[in-house]
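Q: I'm a student working through a structural biology exercise. My instructor gave each of us a protein and asked us to get a predicted structure, then write a short paragraph describing it. Mine is FtsK domain-containing protein. I'm not confident about reading structure output yet, so if you can add a plain explanation after the tokens, that would really help. Here is the sequence I was given:
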Amino acid sequence: MSQKYNKPSPNFTGTLLVLTVVAAGATLVVGLPAGWVAFAGVLVTAWCHPAPMLTGPKETPATSREEVLVFQHRIWLDIRNSLLLGNRWGWRSLWPGVPPRKTFFVSAAAGALVASLPLSGHVPTMTLAAVGSVVGWDAPVVEMPWQVAASSGLLAHHVLTAISTLLQRFASQPEVTVGIRPLRQMWSSKARPALLAAPFLAVAAAWAVGWGLEQLGQEVAAWRWIGMAGGAVRALNLAVGPPLSRIRLRRWRSLKEAERDWEGKFAEVFTSKEGAPQLVDRMRTPCGAIVDVVDAPPKLMAAGLQGRAEMISAAYGDASTRIDVLGSPNLDAAGQPVPGTAHQLRARIVQWPEGAFPNLLDPDLDDVSRDLALESVMARAMDAIGVNRMVLVEASQVADLPAKIDPRLGELAEKRERRVRKQIEKLGEGHEEEVAELESSLEEPLESVGTSPFQGVWRWLRGAPKSPLVTPDDSPLAIWKTTWAMPGIPTPPWQTIQSEYLGIAAECSTVIDDESVEVDAVVERREGFLLIGDPLSDGARYTEESGIDLQSVRNVQAEIEWEKRWEQTLPQGAQPPTTRFEVTRDAELPQRFAREGLVLHEQLFATKTGLDAGETYIDPRGKDLEKGMRTSITGAQMVSMVGWPSEKEGPGSRHPHLFVVRWSTQPVPTTPQDVSPAEQAGPVSTSASAWVLAHQINSAFRAAGVKLPKPEVVDAEALTLPASSKHAWKVTIRLHGGTTLVDVRKKADAIRSQLTCPWMRIQSAGDGQVTLYIGDPGPGAKLRRGADVQVRRVDFDQAFVDSNITNLSGAVPELTKMEALESNPQVEVLDFDLPSGVDFAKVKGNREKLRSNLNVEFLDARRHGASSVRLFMAEHDPLPERVGIPFDNLPDTPAAFGVNALGEQTVFDPLENPHLLVLGGTGSGKSAAISTMLFDLIRRGFEPVIIDPTKGGRDFLFAKDWTIAPFAADVFQAASTMKALRGELDRRKALNGQYDVVNIDKLPEEARPRHIVVIVDEFTSLIGKSSVPSKSDDPAADHARLEAEAENDARAIVGNIVGRIAREARFVGIHLILGTQKLKQDTLNKMSGAEDIKVNLARMGLGNMTQGDRMSAFRNPLEADTIAEPRVGRGLFEPLTAPHPEIMQVWYEENATLKDHLLEEGVETPAAEMLLDPTDPRFVVTPLEDFVDVVEESVVDPEPIVEDIDLELGDLDLGSLLPDSDTAPAAPEPGSEVVDIQEPPEIDDPDAVGARSVRLSELYEGTAPWDLVEALQEMVESEPVAEVLVDVDGLDVESEVGDTYLDLIAEVTTGSGAHLRMVTADDEPAQSAADVALHDEADESGPFDEDGFDFGFDAPPVVRGGL
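A: Happy to help. First, here is the predicted structure for FtsK domain-containing protein. I'll explain a few features afterward.
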């Protein structure tokens, strides 16, 4: 019957309890039965406990405080009823229960102690006596029978039992029972020492209680024994009670903890109508996961609770903790879980704190953590793919693991290592044998770890478990074979599950200590199991009992991957091929500067029935399956689909139903020159190089600019060594789809562009096959033995075709030999056999085309037998830059002056080439070439004549002592010299006639004159006519016209005599070397005897010549060798016997060096009778005297002009031409120099212009003569100078430019309009400037007549002025 609570009553529970305790203690002191007092006090307290005042509706608790008060009141009511045996809790003091309760023994021991205390009747006797004295009653002496003690103890036991029971109920705490299982748990835990010490404590406590009771006066032995038993039990409870309570209450405490944790969180997730899950159990796994077993609300069931997993995780509030809601298996009659089942209501909420998820690769992982992790992984994976969850049936280890070892072996090994290393350090040097023994001892295995008996006993006493054995560190990783069931579904959708293996593997993976742990998963859909762990690595090993091997597992995984890839690659609805694991292989492509090669993979596939491999997969029209497959293969850098060869048709054919896919996830070379060959060549089917080349060629054929069907590679041969920095390949392909060789040739440029290779050649291989030569065999490539000939052969085949050097059937010259030229290793010598229909003329005529197509800078063709041709070729310029004369290796043939591209010395032989034209601009090396030829000609006995009106022969000063005529330094001197040469020509012709021979070389030795070589530098400017002014009434202007006409007359003389020498002089031993900067096409045509000049004139061109220059200079300019880069002394030489101008490099030496060598060889200077005398009046050509205005005119007879008249002056008295005199001077000896001395003209008015006379001594400060020239130059530029007086000695020495310093001073003086005069020591004039200007070496002792005429070499200088 419910009790109503109307109003609060005063609560004296605490006071009554204190009074009860005090009273009980007092009764113990006076020897009264304390159990009675305790029973009565607790009963009164319980009876007096007031009912709480309730403020809620219908007298219900309104607050949590009121709920607690109601609960406490009910407890006191239950205590009251228990004390009065009014409920079942009151009878617990009479029966310990099964298994027995620990509280029963504790309270019984307390009752025993209370009962064993000695009782005294003294207080009752005194009380009765006091009462008797009042009422007059003789009070008896009260005795305490044993029943009183026994009842006191029972009541104390009853009270303690009731109180502990109700307190236990108040705390909702389960009973702590005593039994064998709890004791075993204690024994196996760290509580073993307490369990071992408990008997000793019990004995000690019993003895202490017995002694105490005896001291208190307990004389009854039975009560002492009862007290000792109670004390022993209390001591046992003191020692064993706490650990026993911890063990027995561990699950309850965990459950209470779980309830506290989830109470608020469940309130957020579940409504009051749904109801919250009821916690059933909580456990912690060895890995640290927390598993809370709950009963789901009936409205939700376990499946609905699993669907609230995300909400529960959100309510949990800890992002680092992973929450999984898993099903719970059904339990059998024995309370054991039934594998493969799922409870309808019960579920497990798994909490994975950060770092708690186990490493599934760990072979030592415990079963509980493993199974829980696997179930969590599969639950998440199944939810992700939208299929029903699966439950774990079994998980077993199938990895072939080594035997487990003691984990302390590693520590012992480290200690041994440190100890041995210290010993080795102490030994030092000179103890090699001892060190070797110690080193070998480190390799001995440690089989076991020894333990001393004391350590074993101590571990046993402490209850410490043995160290579990572990798998060695170097063992394979774990592989768990798991079987699963899907409740309610007999056949799970394994194919769907198999397709999501990556998701399962990702869920299995975790991060431990900031290190990622990647776990693989393989789904075997046919047999219905999963492999989780490390089933695919190279180190994976399976046990024989499992019936699994690595290759079969890899095939299963590969099949899954390929199905997904084809699904992503093929159009929707297309049939994917079947993976054939008969061919699954890898190939390694060597990489330069890398230890590991590039790995490529190959997989065989078979098409479904009715599908052709080529049309459907290899080369489908309008589809690029390779691109799609490259996207589907993670990280693929290359994907290639090629055919599988048919056994009947051979290499390069395509099986109708089989094909292979090749791919690589590493960067693959994109050009043939980057594809490295293997050290040992292998077949195409297993060669990584051939795979990459096939991919490159197929990509090129399928490119937008080519659009040809993909071929198949038949063979791939490396033309270069593996160590080469770049490579070239010979690849034979078989064409498909109707493609022909003609189609490939048409697209050759586009194919080469797609391959991005600088070199590609195409040849027919017959039977529908084509050979491609691709790559880069150029500089830097290391060709294999014999490959150079092969490369050259195909290069020349292509070049011959491009140059139209083929016959009607397309045959080209065949390369038979190739070697480096011994005289010039830069030049290659190649011999070719000419096919019928191709002759040497065809090769020669297309030489320039062939050179261009071969991309070489030098190419020359020569006959080599009746049906062969020899080519000389150099890729780069084969000539040296600037070479000195090899004085010790000059040929016997005269005029070697350089070297050609073949390393041969270039020779100008005047006997074969009577004359030579040298063409070259400033700085081209023209003068150097002439100097070198002149040097060798002088060595061979030729007598030179130098005509250089521009530089005065400065470039040929070394030959001055060997010339037969003085240097001709202007046009008049040139004309005089040429007339002297004409006289020598006539003399030699007469000599030939005298001996009746046609060539002087056939004259008797004693009468045979030497050959003469005439050097005419700047020839075209020398013979070119100057413009002539019109006639004028102005005497000065008309005189200028006469000067120009005189100069042109002299030029005409030079040109006419040069033409005559070219026509007639080759038989008399006179040869011309004409040098010029420019040569117009009609320059030679305007000369007398132009045709003879062209026929007898060898040609040389130096420097950067234009095509017009070549057309003007050479007979066969179109076939001239190509000059790659103009350099000093580099040019073309075309002797009369050469078919075309040949490239050559001129030697060069300084003038002093050439002269020194001539002197060293003892070359004789010409005899005096051999010298020519251009100053002979018969030959001399003088300029018109300068015009001078005078105040008084005088009548002067006009001087007759003689134009190119060959006068016989032998009988003419020259003295008759001189002014009257008493005695005519004697004619000069032949060959002597005559100095013409004239009086300087008067200066009309030097003061009018402020001009003055300058002495050189004023400018000369004892420095070098060159400084004197520069000082004079500055003087005449800064102020007017009328006259320069030479009063300094030592100016007749040769300067750095070849002229004497006196010549340079005379040139500066004349150029400024002043006069140069020689003065004596007493400052009197000795000679005029006209006597010394512009001559080479004036002979001071030369013959002079009294009028001052000089009959030596130098012609009179041009005098600026009038008559």
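A: Here are two points you could use in your paragraph. The longest strand covers residues 578-589. Confidence is low (pLDDT under 50) at residues 1-5, 1190-1249, 1321-1363. It's a good idea to check both against the output above yourself.
Q: Great, thank you!
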